[in-house]
Design brief:
Elements: H1 10-19, H2 26-36, E1 41-44, H3 51-63, E2 73-76, H4 80-93, E3 101-104, H5 111-119, E4 123-126, H6 128-136, E5 147-150, H7 153-158, H8 162-170, E6 177-182, H9 187-196, E7 201-204, E8 214-220, H10 226-236, E9 242-245, H11 249-261, E10 266-269, H12 275-287, E11 292-295, E12 310-313, H13 320-327, E13 337-343, H14 348-358, E14 363-364, H15 388-413
Helix pairs in contact: 2-3, 3-4, 6-8
The structure holds adenosine monophosphate.
Adenosine monophosphate is lined by residues 21, 23-25, 28, 47-53.
């Protein structure tokens, strides 16, 4: 598969070439033809899959025809970093097309953004608040929007932007193409997608194996000793920024509190906190006020903190997808990250599922000098001499029970 097969204009292919793309990524392969047909799209994919070009390329193709210098494409993104990234991709890929893009977001002066809008642009990449602000001031006309892209919709929801997004939707023509991207589909996001998409084509990018720059290890431990093991590990390991995951918000809150009592600079990020409290935690973690953040899967979705050195799964996640998501927080951009997972005897089935996706067996480790009591961590793996099937059967039997129970528990409390 190559980009020529999409029948994109040579001016756009020139942008693709300049960007150094030779082979379309799976989401580009699936989404570009559908977007070109003018269909609505529900894209379930994370950042890093090439999703930006998946919508930018067919959008650039559309813009080659029709009126210039009025806003025909609106791309809404949750953070200014993402808005800038999409804006830059539009400029780079569309360099030879003559299409103009403007990015607008808060936290910086409005002057240059207003000026850029006044000079005329076909693409506006915006964060919700500033967009509404500028629209209120009458400096942006959204009545000619033909394509709306909502990017990282789940993160917008996490960051409390859904009311703003709903307000923006009211300002747009109802006759339009809508492209909706989200890494996950919680109920609120599913409802929004159902409401605004018309007979969409769903494009879902399956499991992406985690980056190779992460080294994984399992630490067998009984549940009752987990906290002590974590404390010992923190003492022995040279850690930078550590993200710890627990299964429930109560466990996150309590563990963060216990770590703080032990003089660690720790904070929690969990669903029972107000938006303000969450923001304070996140800012503190990002700015270095806290070294450790204890989070639940759902609360951690909005985290865009880089250089996390260690992800510690204090509780193993419920799904392999969640594991990939969690450890995707470390080992970014050429850094080596470490992903440690505490495993209880019942977790063996989930461990096997994770190993299947990683394509390798994860190393089992013990913390030196730690008092495991009666528990024998080295007995938690099948002995090499043991016939494989026996060990498997046993753990499969316990797997069914434990993971079902866990899922039930987690939906009720997370
Ligand atoms: P995204 O998921 O859109 O944030 O893209 C992730 C990264 O992949 C960006 O740095 C893109 O420039 C890059 N990228 C996107 N499409 C391709 C491709 N077909 N080949 C190589 N790199 C790509």
């Amino acid at each position: 598969m190559n980009f020529e097969q999409f029948s994109l204009d040579p001016r756009i292919l020139a942008g693709v070439k300049a960007a150094g793309y030779t082979t379309p990524t799976p989401i580009q392969e699936q989404a570009i033809p559908v977007v070109r047909e003018g269909r609505d799209v529900l894209g379930i994919a994370q950042t890093g899959t090439g999703k930006t070009a998946a919508f930018v390329l067919p959008i650039l193709q559309r813009l080659l025809r029709g009126q210039r210098r009025r806003v025909r494409v609106l791309i809404v993104a949750p953070t200014r970093e993402l808005a800038e990234q999409i804006h830059q991709a539009s400029i780079d890929l569309g360099k030879k097309t003559g299409a103009r893009s403007v990015s607008i977001y808060g936290g910086v002066g409005k002057g240059s953004q207003i000026q850029a809008l006044q000079q005329g642009a076909e693409i506006v990449v915006a964060c919700p608040g500033r967009l509404l602000d500028l629209h209120g001031q009458g400096v942006i006309d959204l009545s000619h929007v033909e394509v709306l892209v909502l990017d990282e919709a789940d993160r917008m929801c996490d960051m409390g932007f859904l009311p703003d997004v709903r307000r923006i939707l009211k300002l747009l023509p109802t006759q339009r193409q809508t492209l909706f991207f989200s890494a996950t589909m919680p109920d609120e996001i599913r409802d929004l997608a159902d409401k605004i998409l018309r007979t969409p084509v769903t494009v879902q990018i399956g499991m992406i194996a985690p980056a190779k720059s992460v080294s994984h290890a399992l630490y067998p431990v009984p549940r009752a000793l987990k906290k002590d093991l974590l404390l010992t590990m923190l003492e022995q390991t040279a850690t930078g920024r550590v993200l710890v995951f627990t299964r429930t918000k109560y466990r996150a809150r309590n563990l963060a509190r216990d770590l703080t009592k032990r003089k660690y600079r720790a904070t929690a990020l969990q669903g029972n906190m107000s938006q303000n409290q969450r923001q304070r935690s996140l800012d503190g973690f990002r700015d270095g006020k806290y070294d450790i953040m204890v989070a639940t899967d759902i609360a951690a979705r909005g985290i865009d903190v880089t250089d996390i050195t260690h992800v510690i799964n204090y509780d193993i996640p419920d799904t392999v997808d969640a594991y990939t998501h969690r450890i995707g927080r470390t080992g970014r951009v050429d850094q080596i990250g470490e992903a440690f997972t505490f495993t209880e005897p019942d977790d063996e089935a989930m461990v096997r599922d994770i190993e299947k996706v990683l394509g390798e067996r994860i190393e089992r480790r013990q913390v030196r000098g730690f008092n495991y009591g009666d528990f024998q961590p080295d007995r938690q793996r099948p002995k090499p001499s043991q016939p494989r099937s026996r060990g498997r059967n046993r753990s499969t039997a316990s797997r069914g029970r434990s993971s079902r129970q866990r899922r039930k528990h987690s939906t009720a409390t997370n």
